[in-house]
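Hi L.,

As promised, ATP-binding protein:
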Amino acid sequence: MPTLHLMVGLPGSGKTTYTREHAKEWNALVLTPDVWHTALFGDDFSGADSSGEHDARHSRIEELMWKTAGDLLAMGVNVALDFGFWAKSERQGLRRWAESLGAGCRVHYMNVPLEEILARLERRNRENDGDVFQVSPEDIQKWAAFFEPPDADELSWR
């Protein structure tokens, strides 16, 4: 049975690094919207004037990735989605979606203290390799308030 791997955590928590390290072990195709977005449009997140355009572009990329992931899971291919998945309701919906395609679902939670995330982002922003967005400490602190960590039940999904 194919598996949908969901990478859960805030920006800077290590989702992309973890996914890259484990993709071969999982025999999974990795879909990372930020990598596609920066390849197509550059870092259009940092400019306040372009945030609406950034969000629209990002939504279109994610829609394409959902379709691709669904097609792959239906063909029996494992998929790792490196999106963040901050809301429990979103993760529950994805689990049901994967099951409807005959796939399992596994949550990988990057449980990293906010102080460590802020330090990583400062380093990442300084050493940007071109496939990530510049994220400010203010944005992370705002987003952390919306993040819903997975519970034990979610972490036991297979």
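The beta strands are 3-8, 28-31, 78-84, 104-109.

Thanks again for sending the construct details.

K.
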